[in-house]
Amino acid sequence: MNLLLVDDEAPALSKLRRFLADDAGVRIVAEAADGAAALAVVQAQPEAVDAVLLDIQMPGRSGLEVAAALPPHVLVAFTTAYDEYAVQAFELNAVDYLLKPFTRERLAACVARLRERLAPPERAQQRQRLTTALHTLQPVADHWLVADRGEMRRVPLADIECVSAADNYIELQSATATWLDRTTLAAFLAHPAARRFVRVHRSCAVQPARVLALEPLGSGDAQLRLASGRTIRLSRRYRDEWLAALKR
After folding, report:
1. By CB neighbour count within 10 A (0-12 exposed, 13-18 middle, 19+ buried), where does 101 fall?
2. Which domain holds residue 106?
3. Structure confidence by residue, pLDDT tens digits, 147-205
4. Residue 215: exposed, middle, or buried by beta-carbon count in 10 A (0-12, 13-18, 19+)?
5. Which residues contact 18 (CB under 8 A, 6 or more apart)?
6. Would residue 190 be called left, alpha or beta, if left means φ above 0 and alpha means ψ between -120 and 50 degrees?
7. Which residue, of 136, 153, 180, is where some domain finishes?
8. In what residue span(s) does the Response regulatory domain sit (predicted)?
9. Domain final residue pick, 136, 168, 185
10. Fewest Cβ atoms nearer than 10 Å: which of 80, 94, 127, 204?
11. What's the structural domain count of the chain?
12. CATH code for the domain in which residue 93 is found
Protein backbone atom coordinates (compact mmCIF):
# COMPACT_ATOMS: atom_id res chain seq x y z
CA MET A 1 0.00 0.00 0.00
CA ASN A 2 1.36 3.40 -1.03
CA LEU A 3 0.90 6.06 1.66
CA LEU A 4 1.17 9.84 1.63
CA LEU A 5 1.90 11.36 5.06
CA VAL A 6 0.59 14.87 5.72
CA ASP A 7 1.25 16.85 8.91
CA ASP A 8 2.55 20.35 9.57
CA GLU A 9 4.54 19.15 12.59
CA ALA A 10 7.91 17.54 11.81
CA PRO A 11 7.91 15.37 14.99
CA ALA A 12 4.53 13.93 14.00
CA LEU A 13 5.82 13.00 10.53
CA SER A 14 8.92 11.47 12.10
CA LYS A 15 6.78 9.37 14.43
CA LEU A 16 4.64 8.10 11.56
CA ARG A 17 7.74 7.25 9.53
CA ARG A 18 9.34 5.42 12.46
CA PHE A 19 6.22 3.40 13.30
CA LEU A 20 5.65 2.42 9.67
CA ALA A 21 9.25 1.33 9.05
CA ASP A 22 8.58 -2.23 10.22
CA ASP A 23 5.60 -2.79 7.89
CA ALA A 24 6.96 -4.31 4.67
CA GLY A 25 3.56 -3.86 3.02
CA VAL A 26 3.69 -0.07 3.29
CA ARG A 27 5.61 2.28 1.01
CA ILE A 28 5.75 5.98 1.90
CA VAL A 29 5.56 7.70 -1.47
CA ALA A 30 5.90 11.24 -0.10
CA GLU A 31 5.50 13.53 2.90
CA ALA A 32 3.86 16.95 2.97
CA ALA A 33 3.75 19.68 5.60
CA ASP A 34 0.59 21.40 4.39
CA GLY A 35 -2.54 20.86 2.32
CA ALA A 36 -1.29 22.55 -0.85
CA ALA A 37 1.83 20.37 -0.93
CA ALA A 38 -0.24 17.23 -0.33
CA LEU A 39 -2.57 17.99 -3.23
CA ALA A 40 0.42 18.77 -5.45
CA VAL A 41 1.86 15.31 -4.74
CA VAL A 42 -1.41 13.58 -5.61
CA GLN A 43 -1.90 15.66 -8.76
CA ALA A 44 1.65 14.88 -9.92
CA GLN A 45 1.28 11.11 -9.43
CA PRO A 46 -2.43 10.34 -8.89
CA GLU A 47 -2.15 6.58 -9.38
CA ALA A 48 0.83 6.27 -7.03
CA VAL A 49 -1.10 7.16 -3.85
CA ASP A 50 -3.47 4.58 -2.33
CA ALA A 51 -4.18 6.34 0.96
CA VAL A 52 -3.33 9.44 2.98
CA LEU A 53 -2.62 9.77 6.68
CA LEU A 54 -3.89 13.32 7.04
CA ASP A 55 -3.67 15.81 9.90
CA ILE A 56 -6.85 17.89 10.32
CA GLN A 57 -5.53 21.07 11.92
CA MET A 58 -2.97 22.67 9.59
CA PRO A 59 -2.28 26.23 8.46
CA GLY A 60 -3.86 27.16 5.14
CA ARG A 61 -6.07 24.33 3.93
CA SER A 62 -7.38 22.14 6.73
CA GLY A 63 -7.28 18.37 6.49
CA LEU A 64 -11.04 18.41 5.87
CA GLU A 65 -10.59 20.65 2.84
CA VAL A 66 -7.73 18.51 1.51
CA ALA A 67 -9.77 15.32 1.94
CA ALA A 68 -12.67 16.77 -0.04
CA ALA A 69 -10.32 17.69 -2.91
CA LEU A 70 -8.63 14.29 -3.22
CA PRO A 71 -9.44 11.98 -6.16
CA PRO A 72 -12.18 9.43 -5.39
CA HIS A 73 -9.80 6.44 -5.35
CA VAL A 74 -7.61 7.83 -2.54
CA LEU A 75 -8.55 6.60 0.94
CA VAL A 76 -8.17 8.86 3.97
CA ALA A 77 -7.35 8.29 7.63
CA PHE A 78 -7.15 11.36 9.84
CA THR A 79 -4.44 11.98 12.43
CA THR A 80 -5.88 14.52 14.80
CA ALA A 81 -6.10 16.14 18.18
CA TYR A 82 -9.69 17.08 17.22
CA ASP A 83 -12.29 17.07 19.95
CA GLU A 84 -13.97 13.75 20.75
CA TYR A 85 -17.32 14.69 19.25
CA ALA A 86 -15.90 15.36 15.80
CA VAL A 87 -13.87 12.16 16.02
CA GLN A 88 -17.05 10.23 16.82
CA ALA A 89 -18.68 11.74 13.73
CA PHE A 90 -15.88 10.44 11.55
CA GLU A 91 -16.03 7.03 13.20
CA LEU A 92 -19.77 6.70 12.61
CA ASN A 93 -19.12 7.35 8.92
CA ALA A 94 -16.39 4.66 8.83
CA VAL A 95 -13.56 7.17 8.34
CA ASP A 96 -10.56 6.02 10.36
CA TYR A 97 -8.60 8.33 12.63
CA LEU A 98 -5.57 8.39 14.89
CA LEU A 99 -6.13 10.46 18.01
CA LYS A 100 -2.84 12.06 19.05
CA PRO A 101 -0.84 10.85 20.85
CA PHE A 102 -1.26 7.42 19.25
CA THR A 103 0.62 4.16 19.81
CA ARG A 104 2.42 1.92 17.33
CA GLU A 105 -0.37 -0.63 17.77
CA ARG A 106 -3.08 1.91 17.00
CA LEU A 107 -1.30 2.97 13.81
CA ALA A 108 -0.95 -0.68 12.78
CA ALA A 109 -4.69 -1.18 13.25
CA CYS A 110 -5.39 1.92 11.17
CA VAL A 111 -3.15 0.68 8.35
CA ALA A 112 -4.84 -2.72 8.47
CA ARG A 113 -8.26 -1.08 8.08
CA LEU A 114 -7.04 0.96 5.13
CA ARG A 115 -5.54 -2.15 3.52
CA GLU A 116 -8.85 -4.02 3.86
CA ARG A 117 -10.68 -1.17 2.18
CA LEU A 118 -8.37 -1.14 -0.85
CA ALA A 119 -10.53 -3.86 -2.42
CA PRO A 120 -12.56 -2.07 -5.16
CA PRO A 121 -16.09 -2.40 -3.66
CA GLU A 122 -14.91 -1.40 -0.17
CA ARG A 123 -12.87 1.45 -1.60
CA ALA A 124 -15.86 3.01 -3.36
CA GLN A 125 -18.06 2.68 -0.28
CA GLN A 126 -15.36 4.17 1.97
CA ARG A 127 -14.97 7.22 -0.27
CA GLN A 128 -18.74 7.77 -0.34
CA ARG A 129 -18.87 7.64 3.47
CA LEU A 130 -16.07 10.20 3.66
CA THR A 131 -17.87 12.53 1.24
CA THR A 132 -21.03 12.26 3.31
CA ALA A 133 -19.13 13.00 6.52
CA LEU A 134 -17.42 16.04 5.04
CA HIS A 135 -20.69 17.52 3.88
CA THR A 136 -22.22 16.86 7.29
CA LEU A 137 -19.38 18.86 8.84
CA GLN A 138 -19.67 21.82 6.43
CA PRO A 139 -19.59 24.96 8.58
CA VAL A 140 -22.98 26.59 9.08
CA ALA A 141 -22.04 29.77 7.27
CA ASP A 142 -22.70 31.74 4.11
CA HIS A 143 -20.29 29.70 2.00
CA TRP A 144 -20.25 26.20 0.51
CA LEU A 145 -17.00 24.26 0.07
CA VAL A 146 -16.47 22.74 -3.38
CA ALA A 147 -13.49 21.00 -4.99
CA ASP A 148 -12.38 22.86 -8.12
CA ARG A 149 -9.43 21.54 -10.17
CA GLY A 150 -7.80 20.06 -7.10
CA GLU A 151 -8.38 23.11 -4.91
CA MET A 152 -11.03 23.82 -2.30
CA ARG A 153 -13.08 26.94 -2.98
CA ARG A 154 -15.51 28.73 -0.70
CA VAL A 155 -18.49 29.64 -2.84
CA PRO A 156 -20.55 32.53 -1.37
CA LEU A 157 -24.13 31.26 -1.19
CA ALA A 158 -25.47 34.80 -1.51
CA ASP A 159 -24.18 34.77 -5.11
CA ILE A 160 -25.92 31.50 -6.03
CA GLU A 161 -29.18 31.88 -7.96
CA CYS A 162 -30.12 28.22 -8.21
CA VAL A 163 -28.90 24.74 -7.37
CA SER A 164 -29.69 21.90 -9.80
CA ALA A 165 -29.39 18.13 -9.50
CA ALA A 166 -27.05 16.42 -11.99
CA ASP A 167 -26.84 12.66 -11.36
CA ASN A 168 -24.80 12.28 -8.14
CA TYR A 169 -23.73 15.92 -8.24
CA ILE A 170 -25.28 19.33 -7.80
CA GLU A 171 -24.61 22.42 -9.90
CA LEU A 172 -24.40 25.68 -7.97
CA GLN A 173 -25.10 28.43 -10.49
CA SER A 174 -24.39 32.12 -10.06
CA ALA A 175 -24.98 34.79 -12.70
CA THR A 176 -21.48 34.23 -14.10
CA ALA A 177 -20.23 30.79 -13.03
CA THR A 178 -21.19 27.20 -12.25
CA TRP A 179 -19.64 24.90 -9.63
CA LEU A 180 -20.05 21.12 -9.34
CA ASP A 181 -20.18 19.36 -5.98
CA ARG A 182 -20.49 15.63 -5.33
CA THR A 183 -23.65 15.49 -3.22
CA THR A 184 -27.38 15.23 -3.81
CA LEU A 185 -29.86 18.09 -3.95
CA ALA A 186 -31.75 16.63 -0.99
CA ALA A 187 -28.55 16.48 1.10
CA PHE A 188 -27.69 20.06 0.16
CA LEU A 189 -31.14 21.37 1.10
CA ALA A 190 -31.05 19.48 4.41
CA HIS A 191 -27.91 21.35 5.48
CA PRO A 192 -28.46 24.46 7.65
CA ALA A 193 -26.19 26.51 5.38
CA ALA A 194 -28.71 26.04 2.54
CA ARG A 195 -31.70 27.36 4.47
CA ARG A 196 -32.07 30.33 2.08
CA PHE A 197 -32.93 28.02 -0.88
CA VAL A 198 -36.43 26.79 -1.80
CA ARG A 199 -37.22 23.83 -4.02
CA VAL A 200 -39.16 24.81 -7.16
CA HIS A 201 -39.27 21.46 -8.92
CA ARG A 202 -37.89 17.96 -8.40
CA SER A 203 -34.36 18.75 -9.53
CA CYS A 204 -33.88 22.44 -8.74
CA ALA A 205 -33.90 24.90 -5.84
CA VAL A 206 -33.80 28.69 -6.10
CA GLN A 207 -32.78 31.53 -3.80
CA PRO A 208 -35.81 33.87 -3.55
CA ALA A 209 -33.60 36.95 -3.16
CA ARG A 210 -32.30 36.35 -6.69
CA VAL A 211 -35.76 36.18 -8.31
CA LEU A 212 -37.05 39.24 -10.19
CA ALA A 213 -40.44 38.00 -11.37
CA LEU A 214 -42.91 35.12 -11.44
CA GLU A 215 -44.39 34.61 -14.92
CA PRO A 216 -47.49 32.38 -15.39
CA LEU A 217 -47.23 29.68 -18.06
CA GLY A 218 -50.74 28.24 -17.87
CA SER A 219 -52.08 24.99 -16.41
CA GLY A 220 -50.94 26.14 -12.97
CA ASP A 221 -47.26 26.19 -13.90
CA ALA A 222 -45.07 29.29 -13.87
CA GLN A 223 -41.49 30.31 -14.41
CA LEU A 224 -39.17 32.36 -12.25
CA ARG A 225 -37.03 35.01 -13.90
CA LEU A 226 -33.71 35.36 -12.08
CA ALA A 227 -31.44 38.38 -11.78
CA SER A 228 -29.13 36.98 -14.47
CA GLY A 229 -32.01 36.63 -16.94
CA ARG A 230 -32.10 32.85 -16.52
CA THR A 231 -35.58 31.33 -16.18
CA ILE A 232 -36.48 28.35 -13.99
CA ARG A 233 -39.76 26.44 -14.09
CA LEU A 234 -41.89 26.51 -10.93
CA SER A 235 -43.97 23.33 -10.88
CA ARG A 236 -47.47 23.18 -9.45
CA ARG A 237 -46.29 20.64 -6.89
CA TYR A 238 -43.91 23.15 -5.27
CA ARG A 239 -45.86 26.37 -5.87
CA ASP A 240 -47.41 26.49 -2.38
CA GLU A 241 -44.00 25.89 -0.79
CA TRP A 242 -42.58 28.73 -2.86
CA LEU A 243 -45.35 31.16 -1.94
CA ALA A 244 -45.02 30.25 1.75
CA ALA A 245 -41.28 30.93 1.59
CA LEU A 246 -41.91 34.43 0.25
CA LYS A 247 -43.98 35.24 3.33
CA ARG A 248 -41.32 34.18 5.82
Report:
1. exposed
2. 2-136
3. 666 566 778 999 999 999 987 789 999 999 999 887 889 888 888 888 899 999 999 99
4. exposed
5. none
6. alpha
7. 136
8. 2-115
9. 136
10. 94
11. 2
12. 3.40.50.2300
